[in-house]
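Wed. Picked up where I left off yesterday with DUF4806 domain-containing protein. The coffee machine is broken again, so keeping this brief.
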Amino acid sequence: MFEGNHSAFEIQVINLLVTIKNQNKDIKSILLQNNKELTFELPSDFPVSLPIVIAQDINLLEEYLRSEAKLSLLILYLSKLGGRDITNKTNIILRRLISNQLAVRYSYLGTRQEKKAFKSTILNKVVIRAVLSGTIATEQEIEDAIKNG
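Structure written out below (tokens, as returned):
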């Protein structure tokens, strides 16, 4: 692929860049297809109904979101929900993702009352990236909104 003497580190970095480039190409293709349709709906193979009502569906969704392309599509979908400020947008996204009856089983850090840690879920990453899309916000502001939401 390339000439000359390269260290193992350089080869590893180049291989990772090639992988990232291929993933970006796939994501771009999916996003272009979605933009052609001008709808921001969830993919037909989306494994759960939103908002999530049962805990097992969080596990199903997190498994599904291990694909960066599928993760990006959910983030795009959620980022289009809007909101008048960071807190409002965060709350709208959280309410679309998780029902109130399931949300009460979580706290942000999972340190109180035997609750699960939302921070350690892929859904936390999804919420942060969806809010960051189209807003000027810091991760800390979004995390605070999640904690207080």
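Quick read: Residues 8-37 form the longest helix (30 residues).
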